[in-house]
Amino acid sequence: MGVYGIVTLNITKGVGMKLVRKLTSTIGASLTILIGMSFGAAPLASAAPSCTSGRVCIWDTAGYGGSTLAMTSPGAGFCKTIPYADYKNMMSSAYNNISGKAISWYDGDNCTGAFLFSQAPGHVPAPSGTSNKANSFRVSL
Fold this sequence. Notes:
- The chain has about 140 residues and is mostly beta strands.
- It folds into two domains: about 5-45, no CATH class; about 50-140, Sandwich (Gamma-B Crystallin, domain 1).
- About 5% of the residues lie in helices and about 35% in strands.
- It has one helix and nine strands.
- It has a four-stranded antiparallel beta sheet with strand order 5-9-7-8, with no helix packed on it.
- The longest helix has 8 residues, at about 15-25.
- The two termini are about 35 Å apart.
- Residues about 1-45 have low confidence and may be disordered.
């Protein structure tokens, strides 16, 4: 993967104007050069979503789209039920921003019901068949 940037050079009178005139004769006074630099990171368009440190964030659309809810961590070993009825059973994407702690998602309140999946810190796509089912999560010890 690479990071892509656009550099625009504005050409003015000075050293090398003959060469510059040849280069810009068909594209005008501004020469745009696309530069691809590889840093081992994803392109800028696929950056992680905004989710404050120490929180778990959920969205109702895959790829961090639609309505979002950011929840504080209940602490290691504790459970948190999604606090608003409008947000229960709506998660299509999630981001775990609790440093060094995995979370486990459940379809019932208070971490009851069926276990759905575990999520390490960061984004892990919800496995097939678990979208729009989560009601609570437990933070690992």
